Amino acid sequence: MSKGTDTRHAILDRAVALSSRIGLCGLTLGRLATTLEMSKSGLFAHFASKENLQLSVLERATESFLGTVVRPAFKAPRGEPRIRQLFENWLRWAEAMNIPGGCPWVQYAAEMDDQPGPVRDLLVEQQKGWMGILAECVRRAVAEGDFRKNLDCDQFAYELQSLMLGWHHSARLLGDPVAETRARQGFETLLKNAR
Amino acid sequence: MSKGTDTRHAILDRAVALSSRIGLCGLTLGRLATTLEMSKSGLFAHFASKENLQLSVLERATESFLGTVVRPAFKAPRGEPRIRQLFENWLRWAEAMNIPGGCPWVQYAAEMDDQPGPVRDLLVEQQKGWMGILAECVRRAVAEGDFRKNLDCDQFAYELQSLMLGWHHSARLLGDPVAETRARQGFETLLKNAR
Fold it and tell me: Does the distance separating the beta carbons of A170 and B109 come in below 8 Å?
């Protein structure tokens, strides 16, 4: 990678981290410049507009999510082991990437659902892509014989996504010390019902 | 109720509706004044500060949630019927109250989890109260014999809350036409596992 690409990625990693706490709407070039101790004009040279910065942050968050959660899980065998690995990586990814506000997708989703425009459009496309990856892994688990043939794979993906949203709510907002235990217990019930 | 109280409630209902779309952080006295076509100084006379407005919005949202979701459900018999009614009322409350951005708690939770202060403190207290009400209804359902004796009632409440967060994500962000069907199917599975 060129030095320019490195710099851009380093800036965007900090922007993902910041936006996990203050949201995409609060992520102005001025605010990011202050955090990075850079000049606003230097940032402007990279991103040109707040909207372009927001879009770049979403793209960088997806690269990070694919590299930390999805691709490592695909090294596990197809079927239930791969779904377990996705779940484990997902629980850990914000921490692994030094993202202080927890999973930024939860923040972005609640924030952008009523803000029409290109940023929302990209987020929706990314989230649909993720739900598609999840459902496809569940279909593989059916094909491998780990899960029953009549399983509704999209319903499984929906319920797993729900459990992760519940975990974020319980751990990050309520500070419940057993939040992760509850998420794991819900996940085990989901697997049991799928077998 | 006095005319002053009526006016205050009417202002706060509009503020709840607005904050369901733009969040609590975006809810300034100036922005609300524009929406209401009121003078900013008139609003200032009611709320004195943005923080006081945010706290009043949370209190009003709770009154609305208790009056639309919780109290009507308590007219249903204890046990599973009451939990079903809570679920139904919860699915409908944002619509019933003309709150355009869907359940404002989802918005507030994602937004405030990294914003320490009195607003977050009140929100956490309210959300813990709600989880307590849910878990208590589940314990009643165990006592009534609708659910099995060894059921983990707090886990049930966690999973039900998760399903609602998943529904909001799927319906409001992804615009999935079967989001409600999925939430209902997840709810039926939860009930079945609890019996």
Answer: no
Flag whether residue A112 sits within 8 Å of chain B, measured between CB atoms. Answer: yes
- In this prediction, residue A21 carries a pLDDT of 87
Residues A23-43: tens digit of each pLDDT = 898 898 999 999 999 898 988
- pLDDT > 80? residue A188: yes
Confidence band of A64 (pLDDT split at 50, 70, 90): very high
> What pLDDT does residue B168 have?
93
In this predicted structure, what is the pLDDT of residue B26?
86
Give the predicted TM-score (pTM) of the model: 0.92
Q: Which of A151, A154, A158 to mutate to test the interface with B (most CBs of B within 10 A)?
A: A158
| Separation CA B154–CA A182 (nearest Å) | 9
- Compute the distance between CA of residue A157 and CA of residue A159 in angstroms, rounded to an integer: 6
pLDDT for the residue numbered A91: 93
Interface check for A57 against chain B (CB to CB < 8 A): the answer is no
All domains in chain B, ordered by first residue? 51-194 (1.10.357.10)
Which long-range contacts link A159-162 to residues 24+ away (Cβ below 8 Å)? A159/A190, A159/B163, A159/B166, A159/B182, A159/B186, A159/B189, A160/A87, A160/A134, A160/A187, A160/A190, A161/A131, A161/A134, A161/B166, A161/B169, A161/B170, A162/B162, A162/B163, A162/B165, A162/B166, A162/B167, A162/B169, A162/B186
Contacts of A163 (CB under 8 A, 6+ apart): A183, A186, A187, A190, B159, B162, B166
Q: Residues B178, B179, B183, CA angle at the centre, nearest 5°?
A: 115
CB B111 within 8 A of CB B180: no
- B43: Cβ–Cβ under 8 A, 6 or more apart, which residues? B11, B29, B32, B33, B36, B53
Whether B109 and B162 have beta carbons less than 8 Å apart is answered as no
